[in-house]
Write a structure and sequence with these properties.
With about 190 residues, the protein is an all-alpha fold. The protein is about 60% helix and about 5% strand.
């Protein structure tokens, strides 16, 4: 006997009765689109991460790495527009703040501390060593993204400098609109 999806059968029956009665067929509501996190959402996620590692919840070497990642993300967020809409690097920054970093810390903090810091779990590494590796990878990635977003502003500064140099010449050289200074006649009484 075939399996009947009760929800589809009820919806089909409702649609049939609606058509029979001359009413328009019910239209399913589209699923709401997830909203893009704002700078405030990212800041709140970073605040939560900092709160999670505060007060000795994780070893100092983890706290310092988390602070490095969080600081780099905070420096990057105001410049995300430099990467353009739909940028994979911008997505990486948002995902690091809202998913990658919190998830790595959550996975570690769920483990008993002495076990996580002393028992090898993969490739001879403890959970603590694995977390440190993950945090170092996130830090290096965030450094690369920060370099990319700041490079846009640096390139704009370089381009503007080239424009000014073409327009007005080199520093110390007479401006192209100024006539060269006239030679002042020397008197025979002037000292050499």
């Amino acid at each position: 006997m075939p399996v009947v999806d009760q929800g589809a059968a009820v919806m089909g029956l409702r649609a049939w009765f609606a058509r029979l009665g001359g009413r328009p067929e019910p239209v399913a509501e589209p699923a709401p689109r997830p909203r893009t996190p704002t700078a405030e959402d990212i800041g709140a996620a970073l605040d939560a991460v900092e709160h999670l590692v505060a007060g000795g919840a994780v070893p100092a070497l983890v706290q310092s790495r988390v602070r490095r990642v969080v600081g780099t993300v905070r420096d990057t967020v105001p410049r995300l527009a430099n990467l353009g809409p739909g940028s994979a690097q911008a997505y990486t920054v948002v995902a690091t703040a809202t998913d990658y970093l919190p998830q790595a810390l959550s996975n570690y903090t769920r483990l008993p501390r002495s076990w996580a810091d002393s028992r090898p779990v993969e490739g001879g590494k403890t959970s603590l060593m694995l977390l440190v590796d993950q945090l170092d990878l996130l830090a290096a990635t965030m450094d690369q993204v920060l370099d990319a977003v700041v490079r846009v502003d640096a390139d704009a500064l370089v381009a503007h400098g080239r424009f000014l140099q073409e327009k007005f010449g080199r520093l110390g050289a007479p401006a192209p609109l100024d006539p060269p200074p006239a030679a002042t006649p020397r008197s025979s009484l002037d000292l050499p």
